[in-house]
Amino acid sequence: MISRRTFVLAFTAGASLAGASPALAKSRHSNWIRMFDTDNDGTVDLAEAKKAASALFDKLDRDHDGTLDKRELARRLTQTELAAADPDHDGTLTKDEYLAVVEQRFSAADPDHDGTLDAKELNSKAGQSLLRLLK
């Protein structure tokens, strides 16, 4: 059973971390950049994002049928987003359809249109949406 003191200490620690979340978020996204940044330039470009997404697609495709269904996507896309990304309306995404969504989200996360994403851009709402498709 958890004591009141343990609860208060845990709550206080959580509140302290919440106040530090921008720094933690930046650090976390810097880690993602290092993971996806194969040319080590400190940013993620579209080719790097698609390479990561392609590898993830292969990992998620557990039944090896070349498509991802709602279950395999595991909350990476909402039902509405899946329907919009599924031009043949078969309830699944092929790798090309998945990579098209990655490209759309990459463009949305790149407001300066320089073709690369830095930690700040990955920390944006659009960047978070892209990261869900890469990790």
TrEMBL record:
Transmembrane segments: none annotated. Keywords: Metal-binding, Repeat, Signal. InterPro entries: EF-hand-dom_pair (IPR011992), EF_Hand_1_Ca_BS (IPR018247), EF_hand_dom (IPR002048), TAT_signal (IPR006311). SUPFAM superfamilies: EF-hand. Residues 48-83, 97-132 form the EF-hand domain. Residues 1-25 form the signal peptide. PANTHER family: 45 KDA CALCIUM-BINDING PROTEIN, RETICULOCALBIN. This is EF hand. It comes from Bradyrhizobium ottawaense.
